[in-house]
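batch_manifest entry 22 of 60
target: Putative pre-16S rRNA nuclease
source organism: Gracilibacillus halotolerans
requested by: lab member K.T.
priority: normal
notes from requester: please return tokens only, no post-processing; we will run our own comparison against the previous entry in this batch. if the run fails, retry once and flag.
--- input ---
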Amino acid sequence: MRKVLGLDVGSKTIGIAISDSFGWTAQGLTTIYWEEPNYDLVETALKKLIEEHEIEKVVVGLPKNMNGTIGPRGEASQDFASFLENKLQVETILWDERLTTMAAEKVLLEADVSRAKRKKVIDKMAAAMILQGYLDSKS
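--- output ---
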């Protein structure tokens, strides 16, 4: 099975996670820094990851409002998913990511990770939680 990439797309960072070859587990991979909506800044890096890891599809976190509606951040994620499909020709899935960043922060706090270290890993950890939610739904 080819692998799946998970993305937590923010306005300044994109947390990236990857599945194992069986599609069972998600692991944080890296964080890309960018200035939204400058897709040119991330196109090459994402294309390289997709090719290098033989990515079959990309799960993009969709931050919905608590009442289920789509706000500006959700619209930005939808735009990013469209960019991936149109420019990089990869299947994308939008996945409800409500509270994943807060959940990642809680896990890191409980593990007593310092604020500086939390800031470095929170995005890829949130991406891993988004991707794991998707993978769990498939099994």
